[in-house]
Amino acid sequence: MSVVWNEARKVIHILKQNNHNAYIVGGAVRDWLLQREIADVDIVTTATAEEVQSLFSKTFRMNNQHQTVIVRSNLEHFEVTTIRGQSIEDDLHLRDLTINSIAIDDQNELFDPTGGEVDLRAGRLRASNPADRMGEDPLRMLRVYRFVSELGFDIDTSLKEAILHNREAIQKVAVERVVKEWVKLIKGKQCNLALTGMVETKLYSFIPGLSLTKDSLMQLKKLPPLHEESDLICWTLFCLCSNYVDDMPLKRLALSNELLRGIRARLHFFEKRKMQSWLPLALYEATLDVALDVERLRELCGLPSYSFEELSRLWDELPIHDKSELAITGRDLLQSVKRPGPWVKEELRLAEVAVVTKELTNEKTVLLQALERRRAER
Ligand code: ATP
Ligand code: MG
């Protein structure tokens, strides 16, 4: 059993010692039964959030989820949520799919009121009362395809009918929630199955924020599986497949600024790389990380690409790798011309480009003299 699983049992044990019931639920139990790697462990307990906080030294509350406490224990963290309803069975009945509605306690006893284990063995995605389930929270329809993609399971007929019936309701779901499921979906090993299924039920056309078209799904289907790729690579590929002309669709997705910046840089240099192979200045401006990702993107798109070694060697051959390695600074320039202004930045940039393209060597006197000459000529 994995480290995280054992650590979770310790948390449950402490709750039980204090007269509360506690169980591991949801994805962790599903993945444990399937012998898949466990992403995160969710715990439900009869204790209130305040009681949970009083029992563990390292906790914090998530302000949007009142009944959930994050408990840290030996580098692992767990989402501990107060049970909804009177019993664990009540709580399990409120979950989305039967395979996600199984709980286990610290004696390894399973609680499976909806028949999730049978569905797991049969490779079937099912919900009890699917019409109600999908209507209550339409994001669940996207989750269904996310699990098709991750697990390669079939969708039960009654669930598929419920999706056909409720599909338009997904339009009202918050984009932030859609985005989290969407990355998992495109990273799934059986992504093609999920994309085909979404075209079949037309759910894709109602998903907010992503501006999905049948054509973009077809483009995505041509890609190899992405489960080993970073989120950055996946998002960039998604943008490429979607033919986003500007980045308006991206802005609507409420991605982190860091992720957005990363995607934009990769899209920019991917385009540039279409015209020509890596020249020193482009490589310098891209940075090695971005350039390697661009080559990976090309490879995934079936385009010829540099190997890691080739690109690393080009990078190593660059005279400098960052502005901080330039032999002169703004202060050096201001020593001869004591008049601050935008010219300082301009001249530094000229020197930087000249050094990267090997027009000039990266030596202080060489650079200062060249800039002086240029000033005199103007
Ligand atoms: P992963 O392994 O990717 O974390 P997961 O099934 O654990 O998958 P989470 O989003 O972490 O997905 O949710 C944890 C559990 O909470 C689910 O297994 C399910 O029981 C329940 N759940 C999550 N989202 C919903 C939802 N929209 N409606 C009902 N139950 C949900
Ligand atoms: Mg989970």
Automatic annotation (TrEMBL):
Q: Which UniProt keywords apply?
A: Magnesium, Metal-binding, Nucleotide-binding, Nucleotidyltransferase, RNA-binding, Transferase, tRNA processing
SUPFAM superfamilies referenced in this protein's UniProt entry, alphabetically: Nucleotidyltransferase (SSF81301), Poly A polymerase C-terminal region-like (SSF81891)
Q: Which InterPro entries match?
A: Bact_CCA-adding_enz_type3_sf (IPR050264), CCA-adding_enz_C (IPR032810), NT_sf (IPR043519), PolA_pol_head_dom (IPR002646), PolyA_RNA-bd (IPR032828)
Q: Which residues form the Poly A polymerase head domain?
A: 22-126
Cofactor(s) annotated in UniProt: Mg(2+)
Q: Does the keyword Hydrolase apply?
A: no
Gene3D superfamilies, alphabetized: 1.10.110.30, 1.10.246.80, 1.20.58.560, Beta Polymerase, domain 2
From the Swiss-Prot or TrEMBL record, give the protein name: tRNA nucleotidyltransferase (CCA-adding enzyme)
